[in-house]
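Known limitations

Files may contain more than one protein. Parsers should not assume a single record per file. Below, a two-record file is shown to illustrate correct handling: read the sequence, read the token line, then continue until end of file.
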Amino acid sequence: MVTINSSSFWLATTERAVRTFAQTLIAALGLDAADVLALPWGRGIALAGIAAILSVVTSIATGTTGSSGPGITETANATAGAAPRGLNP
């Protein structure tokens, strides 16, 4: 079992936070480009940053519930420095 003190946990948590940041920023700026939501760059980046922070908090909160990763359904490879695996065996 990987704990929140392990490097593989933080690698997976960082990857999740970066993905969340990028997805939120693209969604926010895409809505602005489509004139659905008027959102300047600064606010879009702030929104994406908050989403990334919430992702890290979620990873910490669920860090001990999964088999070896920062989420309930994710598993991190126990090998040091290895990238996390998804639901595939």
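...continuing to the second record:
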Amino acid sequence: METNNIQLELTVSETNTVLAGLGQQPYIKVAELIEKIQQQGASQLKSYDDNSQMANSESSKISVKDGQ
């Protein structure tokens, strides 16, 4: 198996398009790749959501302080 990695930056919509295309291929050929894409995507989206929630929380704290 090849050990060189590349990084791609795709929107969620683009990633779903890639997954849909892979879904048209024989399962035995693409199952591991689909799982890898889904795991990495879920991890990145969770990280994005966590950071977004932290930013919103900090924004709320600032506005409360400003209002007092």
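Parsers that stop after the first record will miss the second one. For reference, the second record is described as follows. The mean pLDDT is 83.
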